[in-house]
């Protein structure tokens, strides 16, 4: 009987263990990654329903990458795998996503006349802004990080 009482007070170790912590969701990085994932998914759905279905691969890949980084940062995977330079990978992902979303949004809005393509283009412009904000913030953090540890020694970024 004591086992059920102690198990009742602790959260079940099921799907709730996959949820990100609240402090990460309240952080700027968590909110940006969540916004990027949601916008990429909405754009993906819009492109599937539109005549511009040839553009659906870019939002799908960006959705999966943003979702992976969301859970990687939330589960502190970036602290476990020091061999990957996470801020640089995130910066490159954001830069390429902003450029790709800007280009396909212009093409979707100007070339196609259906409503879903126009909606995907508008959401694509919004995603471009979100990704641009993310790569600006990541770039500033990356420069600060490199000035602190990168100039002292070649292994400066590993001794935090």
Automatic annotation (TrEMBL):
Topology versus the membrane:
Multi-pass membrane protein
Chief place of localization: membrane
Extract one GO cellular component term from the record: membrane
UniProt keywords (A-Z) are: Membrane, Transmembrane, Transmembrane helix
* Domain called MARVEL: residue spans: 24-143
What PROSITE patterns does its record include? MARVEL
Identify one Pfam family in the record: MARVEL
User: So where does this one cross the membrane?
Assistant: 32-50, 56-74, 86-108, 120-139
Q: Which InterPro entries match?
A: Marvel (IPR008253), MARVEL-CKLF_proteins (IPR050578)
| Cell compartment(s), UniProt | Membrane
Name listed for the protein in its UniProt record: CKLF3 protein
Q: Which organism is it from?
A: Rhodinocichla rosea
Q: What broad taxonomic lineage does this protein's source fall under?
A: Eukaryota, Metazoa, Chordata, Craniata, Vertebrata
Name the gene. Cmtm3
